[in-house]
Amino acid sequence: MVKFYESSFSYEYPFPAVSLAYFLRYPNPYAKHVLSTDVIDRHFDPDSQRLYTTRLHLKRSKLPPAVLKLLPKGILGSNGDSGQSYILETSVVDVKDGWMKTETKNLEWTGILSVVEKQLYKRPTQEIPLETGETPNEAQNGTTDVTTSTTFVSRFGQGGPRTGRRKNGVAPASKGPTADTSDDIQPKKGFLSSWSTSSLQRTIEAIGMRRTREALLKSKDGMNVVLGRMRSGGLVAVLEGMRRDREGIYGSDGPWKRT
């Protein structure tokens, strides 16, 4: 099963400021659950004049309680309730043409719910009447349009357990001449079983969609905090705000307390 969610809005800030704020958005008062951000790869393509970045975010996050109630006990294993999860983020920035594409996806619990969020940031492109005496960039550089598209996929319940289970690499012994020890045979699913799985997947996706709507609002609020700091005090104010937010989350010692 697959669900989609789209939304559009605008920041009242020019594209260069918004694209910079995107990379400086953590931590902020609306993202205290973000524990760390690491740049895995970053390179600039001189031919296309584009900046490519891959980052890994570690967040304090758990599956929604409503989803946990739907899952069999113990299905997540020993790490299912660790309270932390990794998010992979990739981005491409084209400052010349004024657009940025980003993609984030969860690396944990993907068999239960995979969430892929794609965003497009760009300068408005509508034409400006020549009578104003302004060029398009001069008239439109105060806003940045953002389009968000999120895909939810739950594969929970697909590919059931195999009938022949190996233990320590050894197939189970045959109990008779008609016993079948093949590892490739899948149990047959009846109509009711298939319906139940499909219904469960739709429920998990709906819960994920509802949670994503709430997260998008907080994300926008967090970006506006960073942009406001940038407008009032430039990059220095942004970095100072990040320091205060980090201390508010971890204390003066930061995430690594002194021993």
Structure in words:
- With 259 residues, the chain is α+β, with helices and mostly antiparallel strands.
- Helix content is 30%, strand content 27%.
- It has 4 helices and 7 strands.
- The chain has helices spanning 15-23, 65-68, 136-140, 191-250; strands at 2-11, 34-45, 50-60, 84-94, 99-106, 114-122, 144-153.
- The protein has a 7-stranded antiparallel beta sheet with strand order 1-7-6-5-4-3-2.
- Strand 2 (34-45) and strand 3 (50-60) form a beta hairpin.
- It is globular and about 55 Å long.
- Residues 127-140 and 160-195 have low confidence and may be disordered.
Structural class call reads alpha+beta
Terminal Cα span: 49 Å
Number of strands: 7
- Proportion of helical residues: 25-40%
Q: Largest sheet, described in full?
A: 7 strands, antiparallel
Q: Report strand %.
A: 25-35%
How many helical stretches?
Answer: 4
Q: How would the global form be characterised?
A: globular
Q: If you compute it from the alpha carbons, what radius of gyration comes out, rounded to the nearest whole angstrom?
A: 24 Å
Uncertain spans, ≥5 residues at pLDDT below 50?
Answer: 127-140, 160-195
Widest β-sheet, arrangement of strands: 1-7-6-5-4-3-2
Quote the average pLDDT: 77
Q: What is the element string, with H for helices and E for strands?
A: EHEEHEEEHEH
